[in-house]
Amino acid sequence: MIGFWNLIRFFLVQTHELQLSFIMTRFIYTCIAFSALFLFYYAQFYCIPNVPSFCRRLVAIIPVITCILSITANKHLFFISLNPEAETFDMGARPYIYGAWFYVHILYSYALIFLSCVLFFIKLFSPQVKNRKEVIAITAAVCMFTVMNIIGTFIAQTELITLLSLLAHLFSINALYFLTYRDMDQKGLYLGKKDFFEDFTQPVLIFNTKGELLKANTVAVQFFTQSNIPIQPYALYGDMFCGRFFVPIQSRNQTDYALYMQHRTTGKVFLCHKKPVLNPQSNKSIGTTIIMYDAGMLGELIQKIEQNAFTDALCGCLNRNCFELRKGTIVQNAVKPCLLLAADIDDLKEVNDTFGHSAGDDYIQTCAAILQQAINTPNTLFRIGGDEFVAFIPHCTETDAATIVKKIETLCTNQKKSWKVSISVGCSIINGNHNDLIQHFIQADDAMYANKQKHKQQLVDI
């Protein structure tokens, strides 16, 4: 925006065409309004970052109105209009007539520029400032920018002075732009994504290379303030995470970038994940971002993820992924004798075709509930296919197996559905060291298919 302002001013000096100069001047005042606004925004973010966004929006009202009035100035007299007596553009001949809003714009724009200078001076003399050289240089560039504005607007009456003020103005703007990259603390905050971490629900801290605190998100400020731990700008990492407040916990997974720390007061364990903030030009570290994850919450999260990964969404029992992962250890660790039960839902396809897939889902859920009720042992039933289930029941004899099968048949008979509820079951008893799971599966499958044929024959007989 400021570069565009300078470009138009340069061409304005070269022209004597009144109408063309009027168009250029209208765009210049648009650029001036927003340049002053953006300079104030920069000063505010740099010096007083915690200002509500609502206040920033209020500050923009007058520049927006100025922009509209300036662009449409040929339609009204509120802002700027051509002097009827002027024939050519001459800076010393007053070619324009200024309306009431022009003076509002001038006063407001210079007020913003003046306040920007004040903010930089306040930061410059603040005892908390560590990067004072960079702040001095930036403040000097802003003051030069302000002086060149005054000279270019009120003093320059010749093309030479205007051109010199233009060059000095351009130099001050470029100096300000490049000096912002010299402030490593501000660059560390920008590259450390300080605004992105503000919405995190975990404490997030950004430190410079000296271990001085540059920024803490709202959650971090609340936690450290409640714990009476220093959280002011440039507080040292060593003071914040010293032995008075945190106890380091040794872990096999601990690295320079992942540390476990226990808070002494609350007993909470945090996984402190450190990530270097790299300068893209040199690829060197200019700071560190620390995210403090509550290890207790991480444990609950991992448990929920595991539960979702291993639970069948339709039936609520364990799924095939869990079965494939655990089948080798279940038989080895189960109390013998152990029952391997294979179950298959009868005529599921017919129910789907006749009553619809919602009825088919209901049929699957009903059968899963029947199997779970008959087995009466938690975390032993797996759904390994659309209509196939497997269960491992520890400490189960042949007599117990017969009781379970009978209970399944009874529960199926008692169901009141629009279709016949039927489950074909096959069993294999695992004794002692006979842990050949494949052989037991073959035996259970054979028994299950024999049972399925029996059910079909009964249906034919009926």
Could you please describe the fold and organization of this structure?
The structure is a single chain. By secondary structure, the chain is an alpha+beta fold. Helix content is 55%, strand content 15%. A six-stranded antiparallel beta sheet has the order 4-3-8-7-6-5. The longest helix has 30 residues. The termini are far apart. 29% of the residues are buried.
Name its key features.
55% helix; 462 residues; 4-stranded antiparallel beta sheet; 17 helices; Alpha-Beta Plaits; elongated; single chain; Beta-Lactamase
Write down the overall mean pLDDT: 82
Order of helices and strands: HHHHEEHHHHHEEHHEEEEHHEHHEEHEH
Shape from CA axes? elongated
Structural class: alpha+beta
**Beta-strand proportion:** 15-25%
Total strand count, please? 12
Total of DSSP H or I helical runs spanning 4+ residues: 17
Helix content: 55-70%
Domain count: the total is 3
* Low-pLDDT stretches: none
**Which strand order spans the largest sheet, edge to edge or round the barrel?**
4-3-8-7-6-5
How can the largest sheet be summarized? 6 strands, antiparallel
The Cα radius of gyration reads 39 Å
Between the first and last Cα atoms, what is the distance in angstroms?
A: 88 Å
Organism: Treponema vincentii ATCC 35580
InterPro entries: Diguanylate_Cyclase (IPR050469), GGDEF_dom (IPR000160), HisKA_7TM (IPR031621), Nucleotide_cyclase (IPR029787), Rev_trsase/Diguanyl_cyclase (IPR043128)
GO molecular function: diguanylate cyclase activity
Catalytic activity: 2 GTP = 3',3'-c-di-GMP + 2 diphosphate
